Amino acid sequence: MKNLFLILILLGLGSCASQTIYYWGYYQDLLYDQYDTPGKATPEIQVLKLEEDIEQARSKNKPLPPGFYAHLGYQYLQMGRTADAKESFDAERRQFPESAVLMNRFTKKFKTKAKTK
Amino acid sequence: MKYLIFLFLVVSCATPYNYERFIAAKPRSILILPPMSNSTDVRATYSYLSTVTQPVAEKGFYVFPVALIDQMMKENGLPSANEMHQASVKKIREIINPDAILYLTLENYGTSYVIIDSQTTVTVSGKLISAVTGEVIWEGKASANDGSQSSGGGLAGVLIGAIIKQAVNSSLDQARKVAPLANQQLFYADQQGLLNGPYHPQPQI
Is the pTM for the entire model greater than 0.80? Predict the structure, then answer.
């Protein structure tokens, strides 16, 4: 009987743990690597892993977490892929209107850069 | 045993946090700044920073991209967490526009070695400030450790266990594993943690 309770409790905990709102994938691990061992999280590596996360999130039918697209956009930006960067910043703003002021600040930069060229 | 139960009751009956200001402020978005750290290891700030987006976002808030914000602040003449914590709330609101700003301090972040064993402790305290009024709308503190007592095996077994653990885990890696426990306690503790934000399935504000 005691064991049964324990199993039920564990099952309960297990199901709670998996019920996240978002699909987290590599995002937080990349944040760690980026500071701890930057060689393991160059913009190129991050883009590959984060793009994989987008696929995974889609197949699991879960949204990506706050900041995910903005972080991806910043990786594109460091690689000089400005069109992809802009698209990611737009995606962040669409998913989370709370980010609009910051995202507009980034996308506006591209416009002014384009003008000065 | 009776005393133990009594102790539990006392702990669980701790005064519930007064959420009046939290509810009035109705934050949707939270800017988490890199934490200040009392740890001797300067990398503690960024090790911890990589663990804190998830618990706050899963509480239902929009969390700004922490690494991007850190980079932006550095580019704008704020090279360290201490300086970022001094930045004017008004200026932050103008540039980033969060509803609230979370200021965190790591009081412990790492491993202390005693004779036969080591223990990794993470103690973190946090203050949530309304970016509109500048008032404190929530604060809390939590501590967790890996309670790493090896069981059985006699003294020799314990010794070997401790030595192996020291060899395998760098202190920072271990602290990063303990951090989610501290976060869980800080943000999710009943009547003490954050209220559920607007993206939570059961929002409370």
Answer: yes
